[in-house]
Amino acid sequence: MKRLEEDYLDNREQYRKRLNYYRAVLQRNPLHMRAADSVKLLPTAGTDRDGMRTRRVREEVFLYVWLPVLTEYVEWVLEEAVNNGEKRLYFLARDGYMMYLMAKKLVDARGIDLDIRYLKISRFSIRSAEYYFAGKAALDTLCVGGVDISFKKIMKRANLTEEEALHIARLAGYMDDYTTVLSYRQLCTLKKELSGIRQLFVYIKKHAKNCYNTTVSYLRQEGLFEDTSYALVDSGWVGTLQLSLQRVLEHEKAGKVRLQGYYFGLYARPEGTDASQYRAFYFGERDILRKICFSNCLFETVLSAPEGMTQGYRLQKQELQESVYEAVENDSRNPNADVMEHFAKLLMQYASCYGETSDGKGAAPHKKHVSFAESLLKSMMGNPTQWEAEAFGELLFCDDVLELQLQPVAAWWDEEELHKQRFFNKILIKLNLKSGILHESAWAEGSIARFGTKSGNHMRQERLYKSFMYLRKAAYK
Asked: Could you tell me the sign of the dihedral formed by the alpha carbons of 100, 105, 110, 111, in that order?
């Protein structure tokens, strides 16, 4: 018990120092400090110590890290949109939800001539429509990696029924490996095998036809076919959602469409696309140093919406000659819905104060926006305290378009797993030159910090591995 109490006091002191650091960064822009201090936090009386700590750490870090960073990004988006003559911004579900709330507040407070909208969309919903005319190119988004990808999961991505999926499995010779987790190499082999099975594309097009019709009707209703200048706003990462949306719009209009996207970060953009259509705030394809201390999985876990994932669209009602379409969400809400709802309330208080005290004139250069955000994110994401890792690491996350397998964003790693995750061990295991199975974590730094002991050395190993991987990718471009 004494040892546990000493650990608690040590971690509390570590977190207190980190919080003081965040506040010192915010002093660079007193507007952020004033907005953060204006927010009323929930009372913690009557809760157990661990529950109280988790809730308070989430609230404070959200106020002193996530909201200032989010605000800086939205400020940049609004500046870019106005300078580029945009008339409307579509913030994409679900990562764009809190960005949308912040933008709406700032635009209303400043009287900016921008139409701010929230578009219910997902990779799954737009690809389900795109598959109607994609042909074999559908395999490019069906056979992509992720956590525990199997033949069965790929068939679900394509909207096939279980009976149809088993039929394709028999034709492809995957009956015995129907639910087996596939490696990257196996996925590449499967992609080639599926390209030769004509019946697969018959099934895909059959299911995609209705998806295409309802999707186009929803997009038309939301104004994406109107003759006005608009842009998309989202978290980013690889830009495939923008490309799929552009393809659907072009197919329906039978003509070229030029979509503009503003993103928090871009690891890459779709091959053959125009770089000017994909604008990144925090890091682009070549910004390796910022990527090393960044976790896109944690970002989209924290900055999300309480609603469920958009699976498609349907006709809600018919009034005289007007048809009203609505998004169809999956059966369950965001697994972190309660936390997201609370964060949204904190955001609204923060945005009200920030919007009232800033007029947006004399905005800081892009580099200053980014430098400010980096000072906060580099510590919180790339080197979290144990309390931060525990509070945010237990939030649930899934990287698959169907959200079939949720897991803590910072998976629990024991000492044996941490040893396997060391740079050389990890490389050798991945090359099959050493035995062992690696258990991936969506936020590796959080997993390391949760363990606690000797975290500094393990963090260096993780940064070394990330540096190697990003440099290797850059060398092949």
From this structure: positive
- How many residues in the chain? 477
Residues 420, 60: Cα–Cα separation, whole Å: 34
How many C-beta neighbours within 10 Å does residue 54 have? 17
Phi and psi at residue 99, in whole multiples of 5°? Answer: -60, -40
Among the listed residues 373, 376, 301, the one whose alpha carbon sits nearest the alpha carbon of residue 61: 376
Of the candidates 395, 446, 385, 394, the one whose C-alpha atom is nearest the C-alpha of residue 421 is 446
Quote the radius of gyration of the chain (alpha carbons, Å): 23
β-pair partners for 396? 408
User: What are the counts of helices (DSSP H) followed by strands (DSSP E) for the chain?
Assistant: 21, 9
Pairing mode, if any, of strands 115-119 and 88-92?
Answer: parallel
Q: Which of 340, 301, 294, 236 is nearest to 444 (CA)?
A: 294
* Residue 317: strand pairing partners: 324
* CA separation for the pair 401, 421 (Å, rounded): 26
Mean pLDDT for 309-335 is 87
Concatenate the DSSP letters of all residues of 94-161 into one string. Answer: TTTHHHHHHHHHHHHHHT---EEEEE---HHHHHHHHHHHHGGGGHHHHS---TT--HHHHHHHTT--
Distance, CA of 343 to chain centre: 16
Q: How far apart are the first and last CA of the chain?
A: 55
Q: Which token pair is 348?
A: 């609204």
Q: Are strands 396-397 and 407-408 parallel, antiparallel or unpaired?
A: antiparallel
- Please choose, from the candidates 431, 428, 467, 461, the residue with its C-alpha nearest in 3D space to the C-alpha of residue 444: 461
Cα distance between residue 285 and residue 268, in whole Å:
5
Residue 374 DSSP code: H
Q: Locate 284 and state its tokens.
A: 């682009």
Q: Decide if 262 contacts 77 (C-beta within 8 A).
A: yes
Model-level pTM? 0.92
Dihedral sign for Cα atoms in the order 227, 88, 225, 320: negative
Residue 120 CB neighbours (<10 A): 19
Crossing angle of helices 2-26 and 366-382, rounded to 10° = 180
Question: Do 160 and 236 contact (CB within 8 A), yes or no?
Answer: no
> 134-188 pLDDT, tens per residue?
999 999 999 987 767 899 999 999 999 999 999 999 999 999 999 998 888 889 9
**In DSSP terms, which residues pair with 117 in a beta bridge?**
90
